[in-house]
Amino acid sequence: MSAFEALRRVLGDTARFKSLRDRIEILFEGQVRSWSRGTSGWLVMPVEREPAGFYLLSEDREGQRCGQEVLAAFLGPAVATIEPAPMSPGNEGADGILRAVGINYLSHLQRTDASALAMLERLEDAVATVTGTDVRRRSVRPSHVDLLRDFRLALLRGNGRVAEHALDELRLTGRLSAENLRFLKVELLGRLERWSELRDLPYLQEMLRARRPRAVNEILLEMLWWKEVAPLYTSELSAEDVYRRADLSSRYGVILNAVDVPITESGRKVTAVAAQVQGDRGRLERLLRAAATDAERGWLRSLVTHGDTAARPRPAILPTIQELFQQAQYGAVTRAFLESPEPSEADMAVQAVLEGDETNQAPAVRSLVSGFVEEGRLRPDRRLLRDLEELDRLVGGSCHSWTEWCARLGRDERWPDAAQVLRSQHHQWAGLESLSYAETRAAAENVLSAWAGANQEQVVAALDLLCSAAAKAAATMQAGEFFDVVLMLLVDQPSLSAPVRDAYLLLIVRLLESGPAESRYQETLNNALLLWRRIASPAAVDWGLSLVDVLLYAPSPVPEARLATVSEVINKIRSFQQRLSSRQDSELETLAGEAGLPVRQPQEQTSDADTVWKRLDGSVVGVYSLLPRAAASLEKRLSRLCSPRAVEGNTDKVATAALRSLVARADYLIVDTWHATHSATSAIDQARDRDKQIMPQGQGVTGFMQALEQHLSSA
What HEC string does 516-538 produce? Predict the structure, then answer.
């Protein structure tokens, strides 16, 4: 039975609509005859089931989302409301027939005040508009919001080249201030761990005199650890010795106390040194409680008990709030003010909250200052009035969990600070993996509502954080709907740029690592294949190769479905044969062989870009990665292009002698930070500068090859 015949069987009783019967038949036939599976499309028609009426039908969630967005716009609440309708179990009745032709999701169109004729007219307009033209506006140049999205998604994958290009394009838009562009530059250098470049920025000292976002302060603290503190810190030197030799107080005093408890280990270590020298025992205790590992906790304890500093008596007279403020100890200023509030110190307390981005203490400080103003004990000047307005925005925008943030984002009112609130506060929240199924489902629905509603730009601006949160929660069953929604958001971007595609691939990797059930694995293959069909072109070949690489490396509960997907991608790439580089051709045929498909002979190398691989002849290529068979697979792909003396891999999870030896001997060293352990990569950083390490740009061994090619071309 064809889909048309099956859907005809469940078509609702058009006799109930009397004179509208013919128009409903036309609406039905026009949609069903052009409908095809695997396209995330949707249908609207009356269905013979309870409750009776029109239903929105789709095979997947993406189809439901698109259909609901269109129908809500054309119908409006005065005509009908759209309510999700669960399908009955089993294969009997209308729902069984729908399920047989691929319909898995329903929503009931509950007519409200309008007549049946008015509702049908709106449905006809909606269907005619969608089938007649693509109504989405597409700009010739990406907007600054899209460029910010690409910038941060590229940093999420560690792709500095693409991130720098996006930052250059952002400058040309003229939409961002010079100060914000400087902050983005700091973010770029920090996320790529290019600490020397960050320290040498010509405007760094000028930036330290201005108010900075917390994210920038966190990055600057990491830079201080790697470039100023860690090189000096030895068992022979006390914290005070290091503090004095690095001249931290005069050069970076405003940074050391800008964040009370940083989110990174290196940030916590450098602030612990400052707290030890300043005698701030309370802060040291908070840092100890925040330590992420036993090793870090042990390091902090040794700092407290090391040398004469710990035993030296502290002054009996505690510093005043003004002295604390002058020393940029903003957390201490806030706590002292809350313990003993005075109107004369309110100005410093407000500034301290804003400088430290102390969202937890902000409401209490604001309440006390408001009380002083109402009682006439404080007359704010212009600067304090501006600070109080900023404090009000901080208090009004503060959230305490993912569920609270998503709920506010999903309301039908603009929230222009939503992305910034998430960026500055999400590290204080419990992860999505700790939420219940109901909570994560509600969060997913709210994000989806925001994407289709008033806060779409905020969703775009926070897309990297949504991807990161979804990736961390991929292994948990309860976060499945949130994960799927983020995948939908990526696919539904007006511009499927390289960073967007790479983020989609990252989520697929995390999902496959979690060992999905057969049905979820099959759905993942189908969706990835749909995306590939949309973007397939010579420019997207590297993404297709990465997809094949990821699928072949991950266990598969449905090997035959994986082979079919891999075959389609490889065959499509082969159709671009004349546009492939030697590296792409080599990888393509290596992957074909690993998949069990016929292998073609490699193309001859003709261009300078092809012969650059000869630089690897006779060299030792080192690979540090926890990916299985990484070195062997890389050697096989390189063998078609050049003749390295050896390709040696290391999978040690700690700093072993073998790892140190490889780092020292390798002419070229690939460090896969996505599949690595912190202790091992720290040892590599100590033995080899970052600019002499090659960081993969894509997924799997394909990412190694892309990074090697870029490194050789720029050498």
Answer: CCHHHHHHHHHHHHHHHHHHCCH
* DSSP string of 95-163, one letter each residue: HHHHHHTT--EEEEEEE-SS-HHHHHHHHHHHHHHHHH-------SS--HHHHHHHHHHHHHTT-HHHH
DSSP for residue 226: I
Tell me the per-residue pLDDT of 118-177, one tens digit each, with 9 for 90 and over: 888 889 888 887 766 443 444 456 788 999 999 999 998 888 888 999 999 999 988 899
What strands lie across the sheet with 80-85, from one edge to the other?
42-47, 53-58, 105-111, 80-85
> Taking the model in full, what pTM does it have?
0.73
Minimal CA–CA distance to 703: which of 548, 567, 592, 582?
548
CA dihedral 419, 421, 425, 427 (to 10 degrees): 0
- How far apart (Å, rounded) are the C-alpha atoms in residues 115 and 105? 26
Instruction: Give pairs for 584-592: CB < 8 Å, separation 24+.
Output: 584/541, 584/542, 584/545, 586/637, 586/638, 586/640, 586/641, 587/545, 587/637, 587/702, 587/705, 588/545, 589/640, 590/633, 590/636, 590/637, 590/640, 591/545, 591/548, 591/549, 591/552, 591/566
In angstroms, the CA 663 to CA 608 distance is: 29
pLDDT in tens, 430-486: 889 899 999 999 999 999 999 988 999 999 999 999 999 999 888 887 888 899 999
